[in-house]
Specification:
It comes from Candidatus Marimicrobium litorale. By secondary structure, this protein is an alpha+beta fold. About 20% of the residues lie in helices and about 25% in strands.
């Protein structure tokens, strides 16, 4: 196709301003615009490159060489350097924000997150969401929507699936949302339960993967205090859109300051980035020998994070299990806890076992919530054994 380009003339002085023709496109959905059974295919998609894979891993302090060292990855059986699970999760969630949660007041939790296939340089992901449930808490109160999202690659194979809950207000007399496009393919109806991994069974090189993160290094009940913290700057606003998240709460100061309560003020750090930094802080001590993040569940952002806050992380081992049918591997389940503006060691000294009790359970137990605690989640990792 050839397009001729004549000289461009100024037109604005000759076109009348007509205030009757103003349009205000709206994105995201209010509670009454989220119908159970409704399905969205989200716009744009995201192509992974070796550059953005490495940039994400370095930015979020990933220590597992699987996401940093292509030679290491291929020796394990992967066809190229895979994207870290945190990157895949952040991208797929962010792709859905424009349709399912750009009007959300809060993300209430992550559930049954499963990573089913590797994502490599050159892969392009799209995301689909189905509304599973809508909970009405009264006409004057925000409700809760439960949604299921899947990420698919260019061959329509599911690489990631998860559920989450979002708190959303009723629309009332506000402008309706711009209609979404009709999905181009059916939504996968049945949850998948198998992980497709290309593992070769090759021994992990101990020098590259660290000395203390084999299956044998963990026992149920262990508590690991991760030494380093991470101070967050206004970098978070650019990183939010780097993964495609379009919620103005994370980068629009005028929007953020228009809110009330603890969400008001400067833009809040997108929770997926907080999780990624916490996981990175833990990776030297927990997942350096991991060959796959099997998934995570019961993930809650319990306090907001702002630029200027410093994150710290702790992990508690919940289970160490055999990996059925996989010689030389085991499954380790941990609880990851995030704190802010005190070190992980100081948090443990100050709050002791209460740090590991779910925040939403504390009222029933007669305990106070911890204002310094920002995140909690359970993770399952497939780790290599020292003796493969």
């Amino acid at each position: 196709m050839t397009v001729n380009l004549p000289s461009q003339q100024e037109l604005s002085p000759t076109v009348d301003v007509d205030l009757e023709r103003v349009r205000r496109p709206q994105y995201g959905r209010y509670l009454d615009e989220l119908e159970p059974g409704q399905t969205f295919e989200h716009p744009r998609g995201f192509t992974f490159t070796r550059g953005n894979i490495l940039l994400f891993s370095r930015t979020f302090m990933q220590a597992n060489p699987l996401y940093l060292n292509a030679q290491y990855a291929t020796e394990l059986g992967f066809s190229d350097l895979p994207a870290s699970p945190q990157m895949v999760f952040n991208v797929v969630l962010s792709l859905g924000v424009q349709n399912d949660s750009e009007k959300a007041i809060a993300n209430l939790g992550y559930y049954d997150v499963q990573f089913l296939r590797p994502v490599y340089p050159g892969d392009t992901l799209r995301a689909f969401t189905r509304v599973l449930e809508r909970k009405d808490r009264g006409p004057d109160k925000p409700g809760i929507a439960r949604i299921r999202t899947v990420g698919v690659n260019q061959t329509n194979n599911v690489v990631l699936q998860y559920e989450r809950k979002v708190m959303v207000a009723w629309r009332g007399d506000r402008l309706p949302t711009t209609p979404a496009a009709t999905p181009s393919m059916p939504f996968p109806d049945e949850p998948l339960s198998q992980v497709d991994l290309p593992l070769s069974g090759a021994a992990v090189t101990g020098v590259l993967s660290g000395p203390n993160t084999a299956v044998e290094d963990f026992s149920c009940g262990d508590i690991i205090v991760h030494a380093n913290g991470r101070s967050i700057t206004e970098e978070h606003m650019a990183l939010t859109y780097l993964v495609g998240n379009s919620h103005p709460l994370h980068f629009d100061g005028e929007y953020s300051r228009s809110l009330s309560g603890k969400m008001s003020g400067n833009p809040i750090v997108y929770g997926g980035l907080v999780f990624a930094w916490l996981e990175g802080l833990a990776s030297r001590d927990i997942s350096e020998r991991s060959v796959w993040e099997l998934g995570f569940t019961e993930g809650y952002h319990t306090q907001p994070v702002f630029a200027g806050d410093t994150l710290g992380a702790l992990s508690r081992v919940l289970a160490v299990e055999e990996a059925a049918g996989l010689h030389g591997y085991g499954i380790v389940t941990t609880q990851l806890i995030g704190v802010k503006n005190l070190t992980a060691a100081a948090a443990l000294d100050k709050y002791a076992e209460d740090l590991f009790i779910k925040e939403d359970s504390k009222r029933a137990l007669g305990k106070e919530k911890i204002s310094d605690k920002i995140f909690e989640i359970e993770r399952r990792l497939l780790l290599t054994r020292r003796s493969q």
